[in-house]
Design goal:
Layout lengths: L6 H8 L6 H9 L4 H11 L4 H7 L5 H13 L3 E2 L9 E2 L1 H4 L2 H21 L14
Antiparallel strand pairs: 1-2
GO molecular function, one term: DNA binding
Keywords: DNA-binding, Transcription, Transcription regulation
Pfam families: HxlR
Length: 131
Amino acid sequence: MTDLVRGEVQEKLINGVFNCPKEFTLSMFSGKWKINIIYHLGKEGAYYFSEIQRLLPAASHKELSEKLKELAADGLVDRKPVKDQRVTLTPLGETLLPIVNAMYDWGTKRLQELQLAGDVTFGLGEVKNTD
């Protein structure tokens, strides 16, 4: 199991910290930038690190590198340590796409409902929409 998930997640599994499979699933992509990285890799395919930085301009180089390392440790992305190597979703990472896409669709619909309901305007600065 040591090579299948990052140490933090492995420790939680061993110690029974997760109350249910849903919590474990969320741990795979919770944390700043991870869900956005998975979404873009699933939508467009492989990206160079610099391209991911442009998609997520508010993410620092350090943050992005750290999150990609965590996603790779969990077996969700393939990230070679070679300069300018493309980052791709693994087959395991691709299995999260229906969840991520459903969350995107739900969030889009709910934000539209909230904007139509009143005088609220939202600024979603974390993700550049490439549609």
